[in-house]
Amino acid sequence: MFIKNLVLKNFRNYKEERFEFSPEMNVLYGKNGQGKTNCAEAVFYLCTGASPRTRKDKQLIMHGETCAFFSSESQGRYGNTEICATITESGREVKLNGNKITRNADILGNMYAVFFSPQELRLIQDGPDERRRFLNVSISQLSKAYFIALSRYNKILEQRNNLLKNRDLDMVYDTLPVWDTQLCKYAAIIASSRADYIAKLAPAASQAHAYLTDGAEELIISPEKKYKGSLEELEKRLFDDLVYNYERDIRLGFTASGPHRDDLDITINGIDAKTFASQGQTRTAALSIKLAEVELFKDACGEPPVLILDDVMSELDLPRRKKLVGRCEGLQTIITCTHAERVLYGRTTNKIMIDNGVIKR
Q: Is residue 185 domain-shared with residue 236, that is, in the same domain?
């Protein structure tokens, strides 16, 4: 799969521009603050229905304007796809091949993208929320069932947490089993899907890390909790765990167990990466996980996703830059950087210079 073009109107600092992309490597270059990342953000949004940089869609609208429009055409094994999005102060409208869609689940699975930026170091350095976010975004692109289960789980979890704050304890104890039966149905889907995904991600990330470090480091990823068994078995186990911890949850006022509390263990050469990894090790580990994500998408979808590398090259030493560029062979890649020459190494690429939201031709 590859994205053929991107149209931006009143999007961030773009008044109106159209990008034409190559099926292979595309380099967006220019000084800092010119809009390179904004372009990458738009591509990822159209693939996933969400920005990697903000949770408020209205921030995508150019200052002083009332709405933003952006669209993209892609070509894949099943033909061409067009996705258009219009963002206003009050909401958004998304169209798939000219047909309006209202559910984010219907955006997913039409165009695939893997996004890496310096902020992705949070995947290693920050708390469990960041690692769960990574899993949720990645698995949701591959499975609408997972995305739907996650959405319903979060809504029910919110209701359960509200109930736990109620001081009418008789009512709380009577009502909790009703919520928990529904909650564990979706929790089992989430837990099982994550377990399958991590089992495939871990060896792919380890291989990518060995490639980038010339075998000098070993990256190991494993789930903090191991979920085994059928969905029915998982559902019962999760339900029993919630029942066992009723008093604790009531005392705390929130649900302290379940997939929303899970984490990943990440080690480099046997040492906890979250606590002890250097900045360079953290960057390489996070990049290895993203390269592994690309491989999982290829295996699951039968074609590679778009790989978006936002301002990554300046943070890598020369050998790792060259290795990364070599790993991009056969992928549509969108790279943002300040100097195109630093990432090309003699390769023929589609170079696009951006100056204050304008393509310089």
A: yes
Tens digits of residue pLDDT in 144-180: 999 999 999 999 999 999 999 999 999 999 999 999 9
pLDDT for the residue numbered 154: 98
Distance from C-alpha of 202 to C-alpha of 222, rounded to nearest angstrom: 7
- The domain of 99 spans 1-112+305-361
Number of domains in the chain: 2
For residue 302, give the DSSP letter: S
At 209, which CATH number?
1.20.1050.90
Decide if pLDDT at 217 tops 80. yes
Looking at the fold, whether 279 and 132 belong to one and the same domain comes out as: yes
Query: In this structure, what DSSP letter does residue 314 have?
Result: G
Beta bridge partners of 26: 334, 350
Strand 79-88: give its sheet, edge to edge.
14-20, 2-11, 67-76, 79-88, 91-96, 99-101
In a domain, residue 118? The reply is: no
Q: Which residues pair with 273 in a beta bridge?
A: none
Q: Confidence band (pLDDT; 50, 70, 90) for 316?
A: confident
Is residue 120 in some structural domain? no
User: Mind listing the pLDDT tens digit for each residue in 240-263?
Assistant: 999 999 999 999 999 999 999 999
Establish if 276 belongs to a structural domain: yes
Indicate whether 357 belongs to any domain. yes
Q: Are residues 295 and 313 in the same domain?
A: no
Which three-class secondary structure string do you get for 93-143?
A: EEEECCEEECCHHHCCCCCCEEEECHHHHHHHHCCHHHHHHHHHHHHHHHC
| CB neighbour list of residue 236: distance below 8 Å, 6 or more residues apart | 184
Q: What is the percentage of the chain residues whose pLDDT exceeds 90?
A: 87
141/43 same-domain check: no
Q: In this structure, are 149 and 267 located in the same domain? A: yes
Say whether both 36 and 88 belong to one domain. yes
- Here the tokens at position 337 are 């950087």
Quick check: pTM over 0.90? yes
Determine whether 8 is exposed, middle or buried from the number of CB atoms within 10 Å of its CB (0-12, 13-18, 19+). buried
Residue 361 burial class via C-beta count within 10 angstroms: exposed 0-12, middle 13-18, buried 19 and up: exposed
Number of neighbouring beta carbons within 10 Å of residue 118: 13
